[in-house]
Amino acid sequence: MKTELSIEFFPPQTEEGASKLRATCDKLALLQPSFFSVTFGAGGSTRDRTLAAVRDISAAGHEAAPHMSCIGGTAEKVRNLLQEYMDLGIRRIVALRGDLPSGVVDPGEFRYANELVEFIRRETGDHFHIEVAAYPEWHPQARSPRDDLLAFKRKVDAGANSAITQYFYNLDAYLHFVDAAHALGVDVPIVPGIMPIGSFSKLARFSDSCGAEIPRWMRRKLESYGDDSDSIRAFGLDVVTQLCERLLAAGAPGLHFYSMNSAASTTEICRRL
Fold first, then answer.
1. Which of 58, 132, 143, 233 has the fewest Cβ atoms surrounding its Cβ within 10 A?
2. Environment class of residue 240 by beta-carbon count within 10 Å: exposed (0-12), middle (13-18) or buried (19+)?
3. So what's the pLDDT on residue 56?
């Protein structure tokens, strides 16, 4: 059975980074992913670089899915950006609330992702397949798990076609979230986000900030390797591959890899699968 794959990049900051990303994209294209998504900085801070990366991916003959953040944006800016993506032949958007840049208080004309989804649908009809975010371990700013689940449902009700989750290492968190969403009548595919493990220190820092749990047994094991990067990578490949196997066995509709602009770990995990 062919597993539906998608792969995420962040927009490079330099021409050298853009060149490396093009090479990485070529390598990962061998996995035949359905699309490559490209992230969008806080308050649209990477708008031009996101657009440039999307152009490169599209020019290479691959489907690109730019992230769009509503925080800090105006209806006019979002409308213009949607038109640019339509002109490029883009058919898929990842619609997110996003984060406010540091020191900025005004969220702009859109406060929540469901408002952005509604706007995209109103402006462009069914042109775009709209992906939204889901949080199996709950969004760190949510008042309660119930509130977070209802926020997710509002995004789907606004017109989202499917969802990509924050990464996680606890299978039960994903399965419980999917069951709870189905109980509310949400029937769109909820694709698990997969984060390969390369550096424990970076993973721990990022996980603490975004609310993704590293299970205690994993954290202790990774800590025990100290600076032994080869052991960390080998352990990470084993753990993440096993997670992917269990997700697919449980009926997950696909896998979305957070590649961190590197081909090696994602390629190896898919090879093992």
1. 143
2. buried
3. 95
Q: Does an H or E element contain 17, and which?
A: helix 15-29
The single-letter DSSP state of residue 109 is S
Q: Shortest CA distance to 196 belongs to which of 261, 130, 115?
A: 261
Long-range residue pairs from 183-186, CB within 8 A, at least 24 positions apart, any chain:
184/149, 184/150, 184/153, 185/153, 186/152, 186/153, 186/156
Q: What's the pLDDT at 100?
A: 59
Question: pTM surpassing 0.85?
Answer: yes
The pLDDT of residue 73: 78
pLDDT for 188:
98
Residue 1 pLDDT:
44
Are the CB atoms for 195 and 210 separated by under 8 Å? no
Alpha carbon distances (Å) from 20 to 13, 135, 186? 11, 31, 39
Q: How far apart are CA 130 and CA 143, in angstroms?
A: 26
Q: Which residues of the chain have pLDDT under 50?
A: 1
How many other C-beta atoms can be found within 10 angstroms of the C-beta atom of residue 167?
22
**8 catalytic, yes or no?**
yes
Q: Is the dihedral of CA 70, 157, 85, 41 positive or negative?
A: positive
CB count within 10 Å of CB 216 equals: 8
In sequence order, the β-bridge partners of residue 193 are 167, 256
DSSP letter assigned to residue 198: S
Distance CA 261, CA 22 (A): 10
Interatomic CA distance for residues 170 and 62, integer angstroms: 32
For residue 116, the one-letter residue type is L
Sign of CA dihedral 191, 199, 42, 77: negative
Sign (positive or negative) of CA dihedral 230, 232, 238, 241 = negative
Q: Whose structure tokens read 């975010």?
A: 133
Q: Which amino acid is at 74?
A: T
Q: Are 5 and 32 in contact (CB under 8 A)?
A: yes
